[in-house]
Amino acid sequence: MRVNAKTLLEGRHVVLVPYEREHVPRYHMWMQSAELQKLTASEPLSLEQEFAMQRSWREDPDKCTFIVLERAAWDREPCSEETCMAGDVNLFLTDPGDHSLAEVEIMIAEPSCRGKGLGREATLIMMQYGLQNLGIKTYQAKIGMDNVVSISMFKKMHFKEVRDVIYGRPLAPKSSLCNPGWPQAPCLVREKAAQGAGVQRPEEVIPWLT
Predict the structure, then answer these.
(1) Of 12, 77, 147, 209, most Cβ neighbours within 10 A?
(2) Does the residue 121 lie in any domain?
(3) How far apart are CA 174 and CA 162, in angstroms?
């Protein structure tokens, strides 16, 4: 999706940046993990296939992808985005007849970044972005039943659990979320400059939704 090609979303503990070519080698390394392949129902790809996938997703109007950076590492200068990568977060517009519905997917792939709340904050920021910029009103998440950490996280964000079957195995939750009780994450939205451009990083993090 090109709509987010120059967007940077800055939270308290994460920074979301568009998925670029320079992120692919680290992403490819993550996806060699059998554990991540199982949790994401993914098949291993070659590096060339991963580069092709990145190009395809960038052009696909039904897929919105950000790379999740750990802000603590990102704040340390000098720091390339690749060295700060923690995972990725995606929105998929899965219903051609209803673009107000999206599937949200989060992966914190870097082991040292897990258990810090980065996935929750990145997911909330992504959903707020979809609500304000893409017209999305309802979200669903498809999670393997053995992924208890993700199920617990989404339930805490007021997702309701529904049984479904995909890839031949049960998934949950497949849920709707858009209500006054939805948690919000402070976020600063700004244009992303090229790496190494010496962009000044504002210290204040302002609320996105009021």
Answers:
(1) 147
(2) yes
(3) 5
Specify whether the CB–CB gap between 139 and 103 falls below 8 A. Answer: yes
Sign, CA dihedral 147-148-149-154, equals: positive
Which single residue is written with the structure tokens 């092709």?
Answer: 52
- The position carrying tokens 């190494």 is 196
Strand ranges across the sheet with 14-18: 138-140, 101-108, 85-92, 63-70, 14-18, 7-10, 188-191
Distance CA 118, CA 107 (A): 10
pLDDT tens sequence across 42-87: 889 999 999 999 999 999 999 999 999 999 999 987 778 999 999 9
- pLDDT at residue 209 in the model: 37
Cα dihedral sign, 151-163-94-96? negative
**Which tens digits make up the pLDDT trace of 82-141?**
999 999 999 999 888 888 889 999 999 999 999 999 999 999 999 999 988 999 988 888
Closest by CA position to 73, among listed 132, 13, 131: 13
- Domain hosting 94: range is 2-139+183-191
**Residue 90 covered by a domain:** yes
Is 96 part of any domain? yes
Query: How many structural domains does the chain have?
Result: 1
